[in-house]
Amino acid sequence: SKSDDYLNITNGFNFLADINFTNDTGFYSGIGAEYLRNIKGMETALRFGYNTNVKGLDRLGGFSSGIGLTYKKYTLDYAIAPYGEFGLTHRISISVIF
């Protein structure tokens, strides 16, 4: 996706970081990396990240990864992340730009 909220260090690689504060969890942060590549007219993104808000999860609980595919005005995003006793969580979103 195109945004001014990331730092493009080299062609195709984006690195992201944020710091959050909520009343129930306090401060936590997240970091991530994304690699973008246009393959035959389809923008493809590979993503990896880590979130420090992992109360009740093991040490690997903050890691996540995913893929995004954009073709013309259609986007499909998929992410997978561990979630404690529930095991792995899968998130899928489909977007259309009008």
Structural write-up:
The protein has 98 residues and is mainly beta. It is 0% helix and 66% strand. The protein contains no helices and seven strands. The protein has strands spanning 7-10, 13-22, 26-39, 42-51, 63-71, 74-82, 88-96. A seven-stranded antiparallel sheet has the order 1-2-3-4-5-6-7, with no helix packed on it. The protein is globular.
Order of helices and strands: EEEEEEE
Alpha-carbon distance between the two ends: 16 Å
Mean pLDDT equals 84
Radius of gyration: 15 Å
Number of distinct helices: 0
Share of residues in strands: over 45%
The tally of strands reads: 7
Point out poorly predicted stretches.
none
State the oligomer. Answer: single chain
Biggest sheet architecture: 7 strands, antiparallel
The computed structural class is: mainly beta
Helical fraction equals under 10%
Strand order of the largest sheet: 1-2-3-4-5-6-7
Shape: globular
Keywords:
98 residues, mainly beta
Summarize this, please?
By secondary structure, this protein is mainly β. The protein is built from no helices and seven strands.
Secondary structure layout plus pairing:
Layout: E1 7-10, E2 13-22, E3 26-39, E4 42-51, E5 63-71, E6 74-82, E7 88-96
Antiparallel strand pairs: 1-2, 2-3, 3-4, 4-5, 5-6, 6-7
